[in-house]
Amino acid sequence: MGIDCSFSAPFVARGAHLPGETQTRTARDLWAYVDAHSKDEDLGAASFLEERRGRQFYLGAADGPKRDFLHWRACEMAGGHSTKPTTVYDAIGAAQVAKASFAGMRMLHHLAGQMPVWPFDPRPKAGALLVEIYTAIAARAAGVPRGRSKLRDAVSLDMALAALGSTPHQPLSRYDDHATDAILAAAWLRTSANREDLWHPTGLNEKIRHTEGWTFGVS
Questions:
Q1: N or C: which end of the chain has fewer CB within 10 A?
Q2: 40: burial class by Cβ within 10 Å (0-12, 13-18, 19+)?
Q3: 174 Cβ partners below 8 Å, 6+ apart?
Q4: Are 160 and 143 in contact (CB under 8 A)?
């Protein structure tokens, strides 16, 4: 099962997830910390970011130069930063992933012991497993050109699915990139789950595995 959010914050480059604040040594420690310090209902994390704006997170020009908040995980820098992901410390704009990612960390904390999460847990021989995904990777694998990853019509979606060896989809009542991303990513996961190279990416060492995690599909 793929979830499109970051499962951790950068750690390796600066030696801390939230420098000057946290003593977390693993991603699981960070999940627990975020959950304990978030006031939002329904596992939201907006208040966690707001209370740390200008120190840990960028929410606008009043927080200072945006470049001071641009830090990435090792998997986000793999391949010469070719995937151009948004950092989890940038919490403003349509492309921001900070709110969803830190809310996702709360969810992962509450799922502890109920479902394995890769790469923090070993891959099980059978049963469910959660992985972090980046939907643009699925789009590239389906032959969708860079900059046109968001599919918003039935024909484009079926063409991408066919490239992944999948049959046409059942018609949707409404086409938006949230729905088409989910369908395309599911098709890509089905075809990619048996690729051993994706489970053993070159840059994933034990320190990164436990502190930052990895996006499935980044080799």
A1: N
A2: middle
A3: none
A4: yes
